Amino acid sequence: MKKIGILFGQERSFPQAFVERINSKQVDGVVAEPVSIDKVVQAAPSGYAVIVDRISQDVPFYRAYLKNAAASGTAVINNPFWWSADEKFFNNTLAEKIGVPVPRTVLLPSKDHPLDTSSDSFSNLSFPLDWEGIFRYVGFPAFMKPFAGGGWKNVYKLNSSDEFFEKFNETGQLVMMLQEAIDFESYFRCYCIGGKHVRIMHYEPRNPHHLRYAARHDVSEDMMKKLEHYVLQINQALGYDFNTVELAIRDGVPYAIDFCNPAPDADVHSVGQENFEWVVETAANYAIERALAQKDGEDNLTWGTFMQNAVGKPAAKGGRKKAVKA
């Protein structure tokens, strides 16, 4: 029997509907359930062909459990190794490299020293930074946000350098990034599942939370196709099985604003019934597809083209040494 598990935290509507939808399809040899963990032994199989991860970004214990499960052949959605390595600033870098427009963005060191460091730990960092050059490149208004965070926590909209320094002083040990504000005419939030299924949702982030999906934007069919193309391009490069991409259109150009959301909101009360139905059905079908293809003891993870291309390159000169016998 191929078991599909879902690992989740406080959310309720999506995990329950996901499990029920898979089991309602009565696929021979496939069953779904909430993941149950009573112990985690190194190199021991998890018992699941597929695990959909909705919570390990907040629970390091779960992330370690998923890596252990993946090493024994579980197809984890999303790849826990890549998710551990990825962050929003790199997302922007990769998007620019593959030709997807993104806002001008710079990385900022934390205002306060990280624990167990001192000024001597930053011998390679210029002081002061080239603030004038940074502000000239990004421009104002701008957003300052954590380089790896999510959920609109510690996000500031800034209109001047004075406002920047005032708010930067509040960020403590957080590593932040400063990003050009895109004054958009229309905005979309897009589910992407399996690197091939896209749901483009009209969205208005300036609305109250419960009305954000009530927006309706007038854009051409060609623009909708371009949005879908960018969503697929980004997720195939990153290797996410389940993600959302937010795109803001300014002067006819769609900018990828936020696309490191590997456990995106899928609650029926926020995304609405039609979007909820799509994500439950598509995620269920994709999980079944992955379960049927899963092979015990093998690598069943998704790796994006960025990693695939890197692995395909020969080792750097001098980077590969012969083993020394004990």
Total strand count, please? 12
Compute the average pLDDT: 95
**Percent helix range:** 25-40%
Give the SSE order as H and E letters: EHEEHEHHEHEEHEEEHEEHHH
**Beta fraction of the residues?**
15-25%
The biggest beta sheet is recorded as: 4 strands, parallel
- What is the CATH first-level class name of the largest domain? Alpha Beta
* Mass-distribution shape: globular
CATH topology of the largest domain, what is it called? D-amino Acid Aminotransferase, Chain A, domain 1
Q: pLDDT under 50 segments (min length 5)? A: 320-326
First and last CA, distance: 44 Å
Structural class computed from helices and strand pairing = alpha/beta
CATH architecture of the largest domain: 2-Layer Sandwich
In CATH, the homologous superfamily of the largest domain goes by the name ATP-grasp fold, B domain
What's the structural domain tally? 3
Q: Helix tally? A: 10
If strands are numbered along the chain, what order do they take across the biggest sheet? 2-1-3-4
Topology:
Elements: E1 2-7, H1 13-25, E2 30-34, E3 50-53, H2 60-71, E4 75-77, H3 80-85, H4 88-97, E5 105-108, H5 131-138, E6 142-146, E7 156-158, H6 161-168, E8 176-180, E9 186-193, E10 197-202, H7 221-238, E11 242-250, E12 253-258, H8 268-271, H9 273-293, H10 305-311
Parallel strand pairs: 1-2, 1-3, 3-4
Antiparallel strand pairs: 5-8, 6-7, 6-8, 9-10, 9-11, 11-12
